Known about the structure:
1 helix, 5-stranded antiparallel beta sheet, about 40% strand, Neuraminidase, 2 domains, mainly beta
Amino acid sequence: MNPTRSLLVFTRPALLLALTPLAAFAFDLKPHPLVSSIEKLDPAFDKLVAAGTKVEKIAEGLRWSEGPVWYDGGILFSDVLANTAYQWKAGMANAMPYLRPSGLFTANAGIREPGSNGMTRDLQGRLLMAQHGERRVVRWENGTFTVLADKYDGKRFNSPNDLIVKKNGDVYFTDPPYGLTDIDKSKLREVDFSGIYRIATDGKVTLLSKSLPYPNGLALSPDEKTLYVGSTEDNKARIVAFDVKADGTLTNEREFFNAQSMVNDQNKGGCDGLKVDRDGNIWSSGAGGVLVISPAAKLLGRIHTGEQSSNCAWGDDGSMLYITSDYFVVRVKTLTKGAGW
């Protein structure tokens, strides 16, 4: 099966005009002060973040920021509730709309989170998006959305959440039901599990795992032999690891890191989106910020944003870590670089 097809041919300005009434919902105008800090928990953290480094706020007033990616000379990210993808570039006072709508094009009362969620670039540098509202994975190029996958075995996905691209061009993505009203009880649900999938370069969609109730963010180790998946199951904040076989399928599922003991009223959020640096350290959202974890599953440090954080991404020259943190997008200068930079 090859699900690839071109659906919408809108220029970006046309998209922004298409849902002008959404502008009233784009920003949360209530004041939300940023309270942040960086905590070293192991001497190895000194090689990753310099002492005295501060968390810098670059965008605010968002409803729920998600899915950041370095693209077109700036950080692009989703506001899932506002159905808008924003971009921030150096010198801007705040982020500006880049794609609106970003995830839902036809009103549907069964969708609770209409916008795009995770985003990444393919091997050609083109933008790939997980669209909660339209329940699909797409490529955005030259004003056109091309659907890479919207069904498995003839059934619509729940709400694709996050995605990554292997060095061979395969796309891996997760499909929990968070975008649907009533979530796993949604009447729109066509598959009764939350899957981890692969889209091969020929368009074939393969189910790799359905063992996790809520698979979320995902990242590959630098050698692409390990896949890390953030799990946001209630009361089980953790990262799960799989071995990646030569044919791209997964085996040897195990718990890599459990963060549940760090989650409380002041440090909210499970292990959601995550990225890997060039040395294989995992930078995972969770417990009120970002947890920095060694390949041996040792917690090295924490970046506290003061809010539930959803995801992170490398940008600039590969050493700047951008973090989507509820109302805010913040960034932290590191001493390392993201895998692949």
